[in-house]
Design goal:
Elements (H helix, E strand, L loop, with lengths): L5 H26 E8 L10 E7 L8 E6 L4 E7 L1
Length: 82
């Protein structure tokens, strides 16, 4: 009976762990989506404050509203997901 070498066993296990890690990474990437946050107070003017971020689709199904800094108004304002 021939036993596989320790090197082979070690490399086999690292290959399996990498495959599991990549699968989990792909699943996590699907859950998060890219969104754009736009200022609500500055709708009429030409320059609009926008932020790009990600959100978890499963945990936050509604439109996201966050208080962010608006450089044009020079204060913190409410930004909503487009």
């Amino acid at each position: 009976m021939v036993f596989p070498s320790r090197f082979f066993i070690r490399t086999y296990h690292t290959m399996i762990n990498k495959a599991k890690f990549n699968r989990i990474k792909r699943i996590k990437r699907i859950k998060r989506i890219k969104i754009i946050l736009e200022c609500l107070e500055q709708k009429k003017s030409k320059s609009i404050s926008r932020y790009f971020t990600t959100k978890n689709r499963i945990n936050t199904s509604r439109k996201l509203k966050l208080r962010k800094f608006n450089p044009f108004l020079n204060r913190v304002t409410l930004h909503q997901e487009i």
